[in-house]
């Protein structure tokens, strides 16, 4: 179901059903976690970006949250779900970097969500 744009049956805000400020509040609460993860990855690894974090991770996370809200009749995802999604997106993004840094990347991602299997291999194959 389209939920954005001129062909939308209903907008995300209508599906959300709890007000514009509340929707922004729901989304903004994750910004510190996303920014802290990006800062940690770049600071610890001292590497050039394998792409554009905000396009490929931040925007993708926002789209995933919006899709969750649409598919779950206006209910927001849990923090654990958001963390799992962020770890997956960040892992896929960072895999395009230097393979020798994968173990360090994996350890950083595990600090965010230690109970999850992480997409980044323990060592390059």
Structure, explained:
The chain has 125 residues and is an all-alpha fold. It has a domain of 84 residues. 60% of the residues lie in helices and 0% in strands. Helix 4 packs antiparallel against helix 5 and helix 5 packs antiparallel against helix 6. The chain is elongated and about 45 Å long. The N and C termini lie far apart (40 Å). The model has no long low-confidence stretch (mean pLDDT 84).
Structural class by SSE content: mainly alpha
Roughly what percent helix?
A: 55-70%
H/E element sequence: HHHHHH
Number of helices: 6
State mean pLDDT (0 to 100 scale): 84
Which blocks of ≥5 consecutive residues have pLDDT under 50? none
* Largest β-sheet summary: none
CA-based shape: elongated
Q: Assembly type of the shown chains?
A: single chain
Strand content: under 5%
User: How many angstroms separate the termini?
Assistant: 40 Å
List keywords for this structure.
125 residues; mainly alpha; 60% helix; 0% strand; elongated
Layout of strands and helices, then pairs:
Layout: H1 12-16, H2 20-28, H3 31-45, H4 53-71, H5 79-94, H6 102-112
Helix pairs in contact: 3-6, 4-5, 5-6
Structure, briefly:
The chain has 125 residues and is mostly helical. It contains six helices and no strands. The longest helix is centred in the middle third of the chain and has 19 residues, at 53-71.
């Amino acid at each position: 179901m389209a939920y954005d744009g001129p062909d939308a049956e209903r907008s995300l805000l209508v599906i959300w059903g709890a007000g514009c400020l509340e929707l922004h509040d729901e989304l903004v609460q994750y910004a510190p976690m996303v920014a802290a993860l990006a800062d940690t990855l770049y600071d610890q690894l001292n590497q050039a970006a394998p792409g554009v974090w905000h396009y490929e991770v931040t925007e993708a996370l926002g789209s995933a949250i919006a899709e969750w809200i649409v598919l779950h009749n206006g209910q927001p995802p849990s923090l654990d779900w958001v963390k799992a999604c962020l770890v997956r997106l960040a892992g896929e993004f960072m895999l395009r970097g230097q393979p020798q840094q994968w173990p360090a990347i994996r350890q950083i991602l595990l600090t965010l969500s230690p109970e999850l299997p992480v997409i980044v291999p323990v060592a390059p194959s």
